[in-house]
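DM from R.C. (forwarded with permission)

"hey, sorry to bug you on a friday — could you get me a structure for this? deadline for the figure draft is monday and I only need the backbone to look sensible"
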Amino acid sequence: MKKFAVRAIILAVLLAAVAYAHGEESWTFRGQIADSQCALNVHSLTRSHQEMLKSKSMGGTASSCTLYCLRYMGGYLVLTSRKHVYRLDDQEAAKNFVGQKVRISGTLEPKTDVIHISKIEAEE
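My reply, with the result:
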């Protein structure tokens, strides 16, 4: 009887863990793929490419500014959405959409603001 109770408890704990792991809700996020340098005000006062594009020192488009900041300023790709900046777990997938408005499906780690990308596509 004691072995049965222990096995039942172990099974209940395992089922609860599986249910919790699958309980992550997928969300849709919309915004622009940008670099952390501009989005987090490292060298921008407006949390955008605005100052850099005016100076033309880092290119004339949001894409070229982002690529410059990635290559030379130590930035990484983020999703900017209104006044919020999300980190992206899959930098390679996001590279295909640099400077573009996108729709990302994925899960969010609220403590770190990291989006785990399951799908990313250009916003029409």
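R.C.: lifesaver. Residues 25-122 form one domain.
me: no worries. The two ends are 62 Å apart (CA to CA).
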